[in-house]
Specification:
alpha+beta; five-stranded antiparallel beta sheet
């Protein structure tokens, strides 16, 4: 009986004490909302340059913040460097040469209206890039908003002008004079944005132990002690 009372006391107290349940969950800026791939990430190609930006919005409201505490939250970017706005690229894309296309970087400029540069990473091959950006301080209302733009990653920007071979029109089917002409370069930092992932580490919030449970547990332990004492006196 002594062992049973002790076991019941420990069991009741443990059921109502703090529980730490750590877990990780991902949310995406673009995901399938129906079909067999529902909930999984999908590509949403957007051409991003230094003069155009990509705004993203990640809905993580399905994580009940009244029950769970966020310990950390990091952003990953799915993107690919490219050789022109007409080319969505493949896993085998490489940077061009002779100023055709230098290495770019993705810059996270704004997170939840915070306008300073938050993070930047060089974009090369196709894939996911860890931005190393902990955004847990921004997670409060169930939606994370941000802005991504492009910049130069290797420090070597193409020249502002370039030479092209051009011929002026002559009479009939003949060309006029031909020669090298200096024109403004159209090269600028650019890449294809595909998706963004929010990875949240969280744990179950501690559950306070009701005072009545503590009293009940203490009473059980007290009865156990009294029974032991009575048994010792009888002996």
């Amino acid at each position: 009986m002594n062992k049973l009372s002790y076991f019941l006391s420990v069991l009741i107290l443990s059921l109502f004490s703090s529980v730490s349940l750590a877990a990780t969950v991902s949310f995406y800026g673009s995901k399938f909302t129906s079909g067999p791939n529902i909930g999984s990430p999908k590509d949403n190609p957007t051409y991003v340059t230094d003069s155009t930006v990509k705004n993203f919005s990640i809905d993580y409201s399905s994580l009940d913040l009244s029950k769970y505490k966020i310990t950390s939250a990091f952003l990953k970017l799915k993107a690919v460097d490219d050789n022109g706005p007409w080319d969505h690229c493949t896993p085998f894309c490489t940077d061009g040469v002779n100023g055709n296309d230098t290495a770019e970087k993705a810059i996270v400029k704004v997170i939840e209206s915070s306008g300073t540069t938050q993070a930047a990473t060089a974009i090369n091959a196709y894939g996911w890039y860890d931005l190393g950006l902990n955004v847990s301080a921004f997670l409060a209302d169930g939606i994370l908003n941000g802005t991504i733009l492009a910049g130069w990653a290797d420090g070597t920007t193409p020249p502002t002008t370039t030479s092209v071979w051009k011929c002026s029109k002559g009479g009939g089917h003949h060309h006029g004079q031909c020669g090298w002409v200096t024109v403004a370069s159209t090269e600028k930092p650019d890449f294809w944005y595909k998706n963004v992932e929010l990875i949240i580490d969280y744990e179950l919030k501690p559950v306070p132990v009701p005072a009545a449970v503590w009293l009940f547990g203490s009473a059980l332990l007290g009865l156990t002690g009294m029974k032991r004492k009575a048994s010792a006196v009888t002996a």
